[in-house]
Amino acid sequence: MSEGTVAAEFARARADLYDLLSRAFDGDTEALAEALETGVFADFAGVFPGAPDTAVLTRTDLDQDALQVGYDNLFVVPGPYYVPPFASGHATEPSEAYDSDAAYHEVGTAGELFGDPAESVAALYDRANFTPERGEGIPDHVAAEFEFMARLAARQATGDSQPSEELLAVQGEMIDHLAWLADFSEAVGSADDAEGVYAAVCSFARAFVAWDREQFDATER
């Protein structure tokens, strides 16, 4: 197997995993339930360090209705368990010239919807001619960002030659941007204290992105 073929296979595997994570964080409970049942997360977790205990990620006793309730409580309905599923919600500084009337957000503080992180990631989408189909129209929604990473990896997998400098630059900037997953994962871990599935998926995603960044830094920067 040639070096180019190996690289393409690796990129396809990355694309598939990012796509699965995108679907899971977009509320696709069918895709998540299937991944839990087939052990996809557990299989991937053996590849990179820092992945969570895979026992939760192989549960088969949760139906789609239970997963949907958990998803809605965490990522849709403002309330005691709500965690903003977008990067702006975890920013530490208020965005410039922004006023928000969101139920979970206090005016004049950080964490607004469509804040500076949304603007910066939307600029990356424009550079790659990408329009997210997931994430409810919120550019920095975790589902949209993982969808973008899946698309970038897929482009790299199908390229007939070495990826362009611009493609690599966008990937690098996007991976750097995903550092906000650390705060997101910790917040979900604190809120999802019942079933723990989404907390485990968040921890898995955080570990995967950290590993992917290491691979990218070692080969492309």
How would you characterize the overall build of this protein?
With 221 residues, the chain is an all-alpha fold. It has one domain: TorD-like, CATH 1.10.3480.10. The protein has nine helices and no strands. It has helices at 3-25, 29-38, 40-45, 64-75, 116-127, 142-158, 165-177, 181-191, 197-219. Helix 1 (3-25) packs across helix 2 (29-38), helix 5 (116-127) packs antiparallel against helix 7 (165-177) and helix 8 runs antiparallel to helix 9 (197-219). It is globular. 38% of the residues are buried. Residues 97-105 have low confidence and may be disordered.
Concise overview:
With 221 residues, the chain is mostly helical.
Number of individual domains: 1
Class derived from helix and strand content: mainly alpha
How would a textbook summarize the main sheet?
A: none
Number of helices: 9
CATH class: Mainly Alpha
What is the H-and-E element order? HHHHHHHHH
N-to-C CA distance: 25 Å
Q: Name the CATH superfamily assignment.
A: TorD-like
CATH architecture: Orthogonal Bundle
Radius of gyration: 17 Å
Keywords: Chaperone
InterPro entries: DMSO/NO3_reduct_chaperone, TorD-like_sf, TorD/DmsD_chaperones
Pfam families: Nitrate_red_del
Protein name: Chaperone protein TorD
